[in-house]
């Protein structure tokens, strides 16, 4: 072995240093002597204070140019050697072959860390992907009806406030649309869609005067549909407007039946907690956490949308209302939307095809008179 | 051969600490750690923090001999997993109850928030104490390990008691709170078997605290009161008339807010100096001549540079955007720019402010009877096996 050869040929060189024995902070001026496979630490009287195997000698830190190198022994031991700053590091390296290795064997610790790290990742994945959605929907399911209604009312009022701000209206204006003939027609449609359900469900639909093209299911059986949605149904689907509206309402009833609004809120809050804990106070952690949460939250929301679609199909089929118009409408809407990772709605073409395959109804949703009453619901 | 420290007159305070880090080397290290931490979504932070501490400790010299940081990143990871196990159910439970209780101001909500923030406050104190204990147990000098005795529960009850007092006196009792908590921590700290002692009184801090905390608060309250309910409603609606009418008050408030931050920073430096002056290690009494002004200057410079970097990142996003850019198409470049700024901010702050702080702390601290430090003897006590998880998760630790 070359290093052994070098060692045996090395001159019996004496090097000055300061030794701390690990028991007291008192410095000992010492001399180092290489003796076979050992480094002997000798005090001024020539007595050996310690004898370190050369294979075990380690640098405490990688010394920069101006720092004095410090040595320790591999493994335990609190004793330290501070060398003179003019020490010949090359000579030291030639004597101590593992000088730059870590001072502690990390093997076992590293293996257990790897094991625990994998276990933590796996349990987090199960927690976030499987348990959290179930947990959220179970919690949502046991919340009593009065609480759901209060939550629904509060949320609806918040949405109304938001719409007022967007419309630039003052606080005394009420953007709820109250056309009586239109309301009656919507109630009749809801009744027709929910009549066949095994478990009766109370659904209240509020139409809000805003150009937003959207509909929402809130806790407590509240459905909000913006006038923009009705306009879009009328414009894009021409003759099939009523059936598109029926499809939209059936989809939102699907959310109501599963209490998706509350479940998703709980889930999102849970995801926020978990994401911020994992990422901690790392730079940009807030952004990374928010992005990660939106992606996971959106994935879960897409799952909820798929289930609501399935409910919508079965409601439309039972009521005998044509389902192809809503499939076409959704396909059109999805084309304007290309945020696939962050989108809360399932992919357009696939969704359209799935709905089209499953729908069986051939009837209309309402009379032409009812439809025109709904279209004028915000005009009264 | 480094000669042992020359003998000095024990009654005269003489320098004990030297900080030999260089700004450029620290900046390079901070940059590497910050970039890797961002790229690994924060996972590298345990290794990064360990590397930074090793660097800083090794360049902080007590009587010519460096401190040594002996902590391992894996200990921080395990501590983090423990904290995760504690905090995840707490946060999850709160978010569920919070959603179900819903918005409003009822008694249920008040109770819920009191409990939640009470528990969080308690955990924060536990985190502080354990962080202090972990760091001391992983710091050694001349082979002798530091340590922290005392009980987490005692500290927690102390912190709760003084927390309530501070709250009830609207913050006026803060100097006494700080003295009580620091006294507990310092008195229970030791180097080997040599104990630290803490003898600082709260009274010299009262005037600085009144200047730093109470005065700006009063000014802000006067501004808010003069703007009045009608004024606030007008401002919320964005009425130009309301802005014009309340202009002087708004300007005063806008000037007080950053001045307040600086004043709090100034107070903390004054308090730190006072506490160092009250601290002794065995017979060796510390003395600090820390000057707050240059450090506040360094802090302002650091914030200014962070602002410059942020402005530069924002201009790059705007200037490189295509003409037909929509707000949605700017989300990803915007997020990338924000990430870059947030990655650079700790580098700038660390290399400018923290570096200046550590150097000043070391340069301005002297001690009497410093040679008595050599009498420290190793203590045979068990050190904590993993560390700081709570402090990491609750964002307590600075370095």
- Unreliable segments of 5+ consecutive residues of chain B: 395-399
Structural Rg of chain B: 24 Å
Main pleated sheet of chain B: 11 strands, antiparallel
Task: Give the H and E element order of chain B.
Answer: EEHHEEHHEEHHEEHHHEEHHEH
Report the average pLDDT across residues of chain B: 85
Total beta-strand segments of chain B: 11
Give, in spatial order, the strands making up the sheet with the most strands of chain A: 4-3-2-1-7-6-5
List the secondary-structure elements of chain A in sequence, H or E. Answer: HEEEEEEEHHHHEEEHHHHHHH
Most extensive protein-chain contact, per-chain counts? A-B, 63 and 64 residues
Q: How would you classify the helix and strand content of chain B by structural class?
A: alpha+beta
Structural classification of chain A? alpha+beta
Strand content of chain B: 5-15%
Provide mean pLDDT of chain A, rounded.
79
Strand content of chain A: 5-15%
Task: Describe the protein in words.
The complex is a heterodimer of chains A (380) and B (399). Chain A is an alpha+beta fold and 380 residues long. Chain A is 54% helix and 13% strand. In chain A, the strands form 2 sheets. Chain A has a 7-stranded antiparallel beta sheet with strand order 4-3-2-1-7-6-5, with no helix packed on it. In chain A, helix 6 packs across helix 7 (241-258), helix 7 (241-258) packs across helix 9 and helix 7 (241-258) crosses helix 10. The model of chain A is unreliable at 1-11 and 338-342 (pLDDT under 50). Chain B is α+β, with helices and mostly antiparallel strands. Chain B has an 11-stranded antiparallel beta sheet. In chain B, helix 5 (152-168) runs antiparallel to helix 6 and helix 9 packs across helix 10.
